[in-house]
């Protein structure tokens, strides 16, 4: 499982939001930018997309989409496969981690973060402070 280190400020923002959406939770839990969360959501709708295809859909530069995909892969939210082209060469196709698996990763990450916070609470005052 990829290492995820949620940022406390993002959790604070999430808790203050009356009705956070899936994209809000995704950005908070996985510490990704909004454009990376949008890339994930588009990729979930368009499995086996290339960088060029996603760049067109997202109306973003290919290099930015490529960076977003790298981040998503690091976080365990996307995978990449190489497809050989008939005329030679290859192209990479990306697929989002299925939403049920992404949800499970989110739950696991939150559980780990909550356990960390509980440890800090339990340690409070042990050193006489």
General description of the model:
The protein is mainly alpha-helical. It has one domain: Arc Repressor Mutant, subunit A (Orthogonal Bundle), CATH 1.10.10.10. 59% of the residues lie in helices and 11% in strands. It contains six helices and two strands, in the order αααααββα. Strands 1-2 form a two-stranded antiparallel sheet. Strand 1 and strand 2 form a beta hairpin. Helix 1 packs antiparallel against helix 2, helix 2 crosses helix 3 and helix 3 packs across helix 5. The longest helix has 25 residues. It starts with 7 loop residues before the first helix and ends in a 6-residue tail after the last helix. The mean pLDDT is 86.
Which key phrases capture this entry?
ArsR-like_HTH, about 130 residues, Arc Repressor Mutant, subunit A, WH-like_DNA-bd_sf, WH_DNA-bd_sf, mainly alpha, 2 strands
Write the layout of secondary structure elements.
Layout: H1 8-16, H2 22-30, H3 34-45, H4 51-58, H5 62-74, E1 78-84, E2 90-96, H6 99-123
Antiparallel strand pairs: 1-2
Helix pairs in contact: 1-2, 2-3, 3-5, 4-5
Summarize the model shown.
The protein is 59% helix and 11% strand.
- Structural class, from secondary structure content? mainly alpha
CATH topology: Arc Repressor Mutant, subunit A
Number of distinct helices: 6
The CATH architecture classification is Orthogonal Bundle
Report the average pLDDT across residues: 86
Radius of gyration: 18 Å
The CATH H-level superfamily is: Winged helix-like DNA-binding domain superfamily/Winged helix DNA-binding domain
What is the CA-CA span between the terminal residues?
Answer: 36 Å
Pfam family, one: TrmB
InterPro entries: ArsR-like_HTH (IPR011991), Tscrpt_reg_TrmB_N (IPR002831), WH-like_DNA-bd_sf (IPR036388), WH_DNA-bd_sf (IPR036390)
Domain Transcription regulator TrmB N-terminal: 29-91
